[in-house]
Amino acid sequence: MRADRLLLGVFFALLLVLPAVLPPFYVTLLNYIGLYAMVALGLVLLTGVGGLTSFGQAAFVGLGAYTTAFLTTATDLPGWIAWASNSPWIALVIGLVITASVALILGALTLKLSGHFLPLGTIAWGISLYYLFGTMESLGGHTGISGVPAVSLFGWTLKDGGQIYYLIWAFLLIAMLTTHNLLDSREGRAIRALKGGRIMAEAMGVNTSRARTVIFLLAALQACAAGWLYAHMQRFVNPTPFGVNLGIEYLFMAVIGGAGYIWGALVGATLITVLKQWLQDFLPQLLGSSGNFEVIVFGVLMVFVLHYARDGLWPIFKRFVPIRAPQKKIDANAADLPRRELPKAGEPILVAKDVTRKFGGLVANNNMSLEVHAGEILALIGPNGAGKSTMFNQVSGVDTPTSGEVLFLGKSVAGRDSREIARMGMSRTFQHVKLLPTMTVLENVAIGAHLRGNKGVLSAAWRMDRAEEARILKEAARQIERVGLQDLMYEEAGSLALGQQRILEIARALCADPCLLLLDEPAAGLRLKEKQALSELLRKLRAEGMATLIVEHDMDFVMNLVDRIVVMEFGQKIAEGLPDEIQKNPAVLEAYLGGVD
Predict the structure, then answer these.
(1) 280-299 burial string, b = 16+ CB within 10 Å, else e?
(2) Strand pairing partners for 378?
(3) Pick from 278, 303, 318: which residue ends a domain?
């Protein structure tokens, strides 16, 4: 038996026996740890994985708690909703629906914000919901709602902490399992791709707005479920536990435990809950009870941990226990993903006609035209400031020309988002490598196949997507072998040399099954042997029928590789032709060398 499975078995065994051997006070403490860990788990998904900071999760806890408290204690509900007062379980479903609706509305308003505006927005609606709970007379105002009934399960009424303990931890373990399953899937890679930048994720076919909304919604629903459990454990609800101060504490739990790790939520919730309790017990004995010394000491300790454990405590714990993530196995018997038929050699794939792009009074591109044919490598070169990157953005659909048009496979690129263009068969790399450094080479490349799958969040969470996942991983492995990185398949992408990372980006682009590759300065920063390896790869792809457009500064790299060259200066095309012709062109020599004798 693997050591990590043995440790997991010991953990489950302890969870089962602890209520029988611990005093009620410690069982209650474990109940709070389980509830807090559920909320922190949502923040692991939202903040640690998705890169979105929220201080308002306590308000979603309040929605779950107040919904069940109101429905299960009200005696004069209207007929259309009176049926819901019969069961806390019905109240849970209604609470989840209400929370989902509120989260979708708040997400639509908040997730459009970026930078420091996003967390400020979450503080704003967190405060609003907190005061709403205390203001509405139907919810008991600041006095709250008492007499919340106990939960019954299979005829067993969970009246005390030792009984509801098992329900709380069952909820938490199921949430951890489904979150793990989700992250280990096509949808999970899309969520993790958010930290690599929205431009990269969109270029790989990820709907980043949807991905952000999904994790925001899941975090809210987990908080709602924790609130429902809290209400039926306490049998009483008032606004105090649902303020922004608790929202900050939940975020602390996620970050201290390890915001990028599922088990970090449990570690953070345990540490902070136990630490606060110890400080409240012992500091008044040492320093007196006239001040909130525990808050001061707690704050100092948190700053210390944040300073010396930037990734949280879970990665530190993992060093001392034999926990290793299993390698993903490639199923050679999995069906192949469908592949598009490449256009015939010489057929125009990309046609840019009279493209002009103005930024105010600056003309970045002026009547630029070029064509890329199937089975050829075309280079777009020019000195710094020539407008190459702007032109690259026009043909890739990142930007829209002021005038002129760009046709890809006969269809206009203008007005189409990056996902649609990727689906049409255009895939790209980036001037500055955009990878997810802590993910393996295999997982990074698999992101490129996002558009080639269709299983959703629920399928991923409950492992109903395994056949599709096997096909995607098989395709990713094929592309890794195609570019010569098969020996590094399970290495973290961040550990690769720059040249290998650039080739990895090409493998990711190929995983999207394109007919046109757009490479933005692929030779930048590479050593001679790395450039030679890259050239060999691109020649191999050309021989297979792939069309490639390269934007590049390195003249030696370009001249020995490409079929045709387009040269730009000051936003205009000054030359086009074969490499030998370009090397002798007076206008090109003037642009690069400042004149010739």
Answers:
(1) eeebeeeeeeeeebbeeebe
(2) 549, 564
(3) 318
Q: Is residue 327 part of a domain?
A: no
**Per-residue three-class SS string for 419-469:** HHHHHHCEEECCCCCCCCCCCEHHHHHHHCCHHHCCCCHHHHHCCCCHHHH
The parent domain of residue 38 ranges over: 3-318
Could you count the other beta carbons within 10 Å of the beta carbon of residue 250?
A: 31
Q: Nearest 5°: phi and psi at 342?
A: -70, 145
pLDDT reported for residue 574: 93
Report DSSP state, residue 554: -
Give which of 469, 466, 503, 460 is closest to 483, Cα–Cα.
503
CATH number, domain containing residue 406: 3.40.50.300
d(CA 393, CA 383): 17
pLDDT at residue 322, rounded to an integer: 64
pLDDT confidence of residue 596: 45
pLDDT in tens, 151-173: 998 888 888 888 999 999 999 99
Question: Token pair for residue 411?
Answer: 């269809």
Q: Is the sign of the CA dihedral 214, 215, 217, 218 positive or negative?
A: positive
Helix (H) or strand (E) holding 356: strand 348-359
Residue 394 main-chain phi, psi, to 5 deg: -70, -45
Token pair, residue 406, equals 């760009």
How many domains does the chain divide into?
2
**Cα 525 to chain center, whole Å?**
28
The two three-digit tokens of residue 319, written as one number:
């060093």
User: Which residue positions in the chain have pLDDT lower than 70?
Assistant: 1-4, 80, 287-292, 322-325, 593-597
What's the longest Cα–Cα distance across the chain? 98
C-alpha to C-alpha distance for 53 and 154, rounded to whole angstroms: 39
Find all residues with CB under 8 Å of 53, minimum gap 6, and list them.
47, 118, 119, 122, 251
Alpha-carbon distance of 388 to 521, in angstroms, equals: 10
- Region of residue 478 (phi > 0: left; psi between -120 and 50: alpha; otherwise: beta): alpha
What are the structure tokens assigned to 316, written together?
A: 């530190």
CA distances from 43 to 67, 169, 197, 249, 274 (A): 22, 18, 19, 11, 20
- Residue type at 299? G
Co-location of 191 and 281 in the same domain: yes
Strand blocks (E) in 120-166: 145-146, 151-153, 156-158
Residue 526 phi, psi (nearest 5): -90, 150
pTM for this entry: 0.92
Beta bridge partners of 372: 350
